[in-house]
Each structure stands twice: as C-alpha cells, then as structure tokens.
Amino acid sequence: MKRIYDWDARPQTRTLTAADLQALKGTRKFVQTTANTAEEAAAARDAGLDLIMGNAQNTAAARAGAPDLFFTAAIPLPDFPTETDVLRAAFQAMKDGADSVYTARGPHIVEMLAREDIPVMCHLGLVPRKSTWRGGLRAVGGTADEALALWAEFRAMEDAGAFSVEAEVICDRVMEQITRRTRLLTSSLGSGPGADIIYLFQNDICGEGPTRPRHARAFGDLHAARRAALGAFRDAALCGAFPSPTETASLPDSEYDAFLTGLDRKS
Known about the structure:
Layout: E1 2-5, E2 11-14, H1 18-24, E3 30-34, H2 38-46, E4 51-55, H3 59-65, E5 70-74, H4 83-95, E6 100-102, H5 107-114, E7 120-125, H6 144-160, E8 164-168, H7 172-181, E9 185-189, E10 197-200, H8 202-205, H9 222-239, H10 253-266
Parallel strand pairs: 3-4, 3-10, 4-5, 5-6, 6-7, 7-8, 8-9, 9-10
Antiparallel strand pairs: 1-2
C-alpha cells in the first residue's frame, strides 16, 4: 500500500499509483471496471479488481466505496465544451479524490491537462460518440492503412502527454502490437487480451440489462435475478406471506387492549 497526498492535501493510501502503473506496464495484467456508486466501487474492491472508472461527478461516492483503488474520473464529452470547463471539471475531480481523469477529446485537451500534472486517460479506436467519422459502430484497424493511421493517433496522444488510453474495439492483433510499442498504458474494451488492462463495464459484467455489446460478456444475471426477486416479493405480498411476524413490530397484548380502549373513548 502506497502513501500519498490527494489534490486536496489529504493523506491517503493507494494500492497502485500512476508511477506504479507505468513501471509495471508489460509485466502483468490489470483488471478494470466502472463504478459510479459507493456500492459498485466497494464490490469491485472486494472482488480484487485493480482499477475503477466512473463519471467525474461520482468521484466522491466511488472514493467512499473504494478508498484505496486507483480511480479514473471521466469528464463527459458534451457537458464540458470549453477548455476552461474541462480544466475546472478535472481539478474538481482530483480534489474529490480521483487519481486520473479521462477525456474523449483530442490531443490539445490532453496536453492542457497533462501540463497541470494530471494523469490523463485518452480514448482511441471506436469512440462511440464520434462514430459518425467511422461510418458507424464498428471495429477499428481492420486494414493495414487504418491500423497505421491508428498507430499515428497513439503517437499523437503520447506526444500530448497522455498517461493511458481506453482502447475500444480495436482488432486484437493490432492492439497487441500497439501495446508493445506505445508508452501509454492500454485499457482494452473489446480490443482483445493483448492490452495492459482488461476493461469491462460493471453493468455488462453483472448482466444488469437484457442486451450488451458484442465485445462484452455477462458473468452474472442481475437482470433476471432482479425480476425474479421482484416477482417473488409481489406474490408474497399478495398472498399474505410477507410481511411475516418476524418482519413486523408488535406490542404487548395489554398495551394493545389499552390502545383499543383509548380509541373507543375518543371515537
């Protein structure tokens, strides 16, 4: 466990720091998921995951649930349009306890944040909000020309000062070769096993919805379990099985009788 100060000058401990992650690149795999509530963060921590990532506005909640995990705060693309907006959001997230920030913006925004010594995660490959430039939602790097253009984008983000990259739906062998060559810590979201980090959204891992992207796998079925539990609750409530005496507060017969007598007098 490493001792640090966060950006609000509070002493903290972390299982990993930015320097650790850089030093360990290529020597071991890390596992990352999303966490936007204290419960989600605590679940990731209890399950032994290395890294968590969530919306910047949820930084304090995620930090409360997993005080020692490396947390990346995502600055939503459409909500902070100007450089000043982005910088203010990044500083607030770091003040709330984030260890790095994520942006889907270009190298100019990455460079601005990196100049402030903020560890920055960029986003390359399929960036869903920018998918119109890819001709829709599809894998990236399926041709040599496109894979080489993608490599140039990685180099540009390196030069801008990015620390890591969410690498989404990049063809697996392209991802593996780029990971070997880039200084960026690569986080594979649907880009195969050859990256430094294997990343998947927590709602997909837990099966919280009826559908999920092609690159995701459900390791649980909360969607079905939640509906089964709700249905069982409804049935128990309607047939009188819930609440039972053990789930209900009661009072002594003598007090109940006195209560009835009092009601009769006041009626």
